[in-house]
């Protein structure tokens, strides 16, 4: 064969091999397709597809497991944010990290959500970070739920415009501004008559006795503040009998002047408890100190005449109320202490009457939200305030009252006298929930002895207390980094960081810096004088 024939034969053999290989490849692919069709006809199980070619496994090897602390494996833990925020109560703000809405107030969390065991709130934080504003939002929201806000002694004032916007009652007290008669039984007589007419004679007698005890306690408190010492047992007995004598023989509502007159006249009931042995001169000697104190209370003196005249604006049962006592300066500590005690006495007497009428189904059930802002001022005002707050924090569940106490730091409570210091710290311990704004580093050791805070939570709080930065473009300070930011703590649970942002309606009634918006005129004149001196100096130099 020639070389050309041999090459042609080899080429033909290669062509045959290619054709045979292609036929074999196509046939093999068809078999695989048929096998896949049989696999797809099988059932899908937890271990794979059943049937031939499905890849089902008869044994699953368990994954390897390791154990570590939350500090070591915190980045691997899938639930790094935690559960959602509660949605029961007044909308307070948004979660700082997740943006979720937080609904929060002590009454809703106690009554409906069952998240706390005591309807009370304690707020701590440095000045200017929005503590009063956050509590005012709770008061506004609770008013929408039917809860009546009560501010029994607004010292700055912060809540007058809020209560007025809610259609509430603003009671102004101060020298020449308003009077509060401590012998006024309020609505006790009217409520007692309604109870008698409805067949509740026992409850009516209890209301009248409570009113009598409140008036006796208030007169004793005024005498204590005035004298700097408590009245004697004989003097308290004389005041007790004098009040009962007035209830029996006086027409209308008595005042301190009427009480003084009864003590001076010395009827038989008073002389018996004075044990004068039938000698009126001895009775006058025994009551001389009491008479002098009552003269001071009823005719002027260190406490003025604010408690010696008829009440100018009686407290109402059916609406929010604020006692505005901001006109009483800090220099008049005794008058401020006496006024706070009188406001507390009158306010809780009204709450007690409302509860009794509601129990008898003569009035609708009302709950109250008592706000005690600037608590440190109130606690330092005088004897008796700490004990009254202590009583409220222990029994607010029984009297249907939720409370919000606001102060700056734990150091404010530690500055109280020794006998009141532990009681005041108990306010924080017994609070159902605690809200903290920015706090200094020095506050953390004492705060963590009362409420457990993690290191991350402590760093968050101390970061919020930093001062504001300076904006060079506008020439003004920007808002502090912690303004409107709070950490909500309930027991040992992790805190919920939340940011409160005001609506336009709230901005118009909630601003404690209003007096700083207008430039001081004296400052303007001084600035103009400095500018004139600078211009004169420049002219001389030139």
TrEMBL record:
Question: Where does the chain cross the membrane?
Answer: 6-26
Q: What SUPFAM superfamilies would the database entry show?
A: P-loop containing nucleoside triphosphate hydrolases
Q: Which domain of life is it from?
A: Bacteria
Please provide the record's keywords in A-Z order: Membrane, Transmembrane, Transmembrane helix
Keyword Transmembrane: yes or no?
A: yes
InterPro entries membership: P-loop_NTPase (IPR027417)
Protein name listed in UniProt: ATP/GTP-binding protein
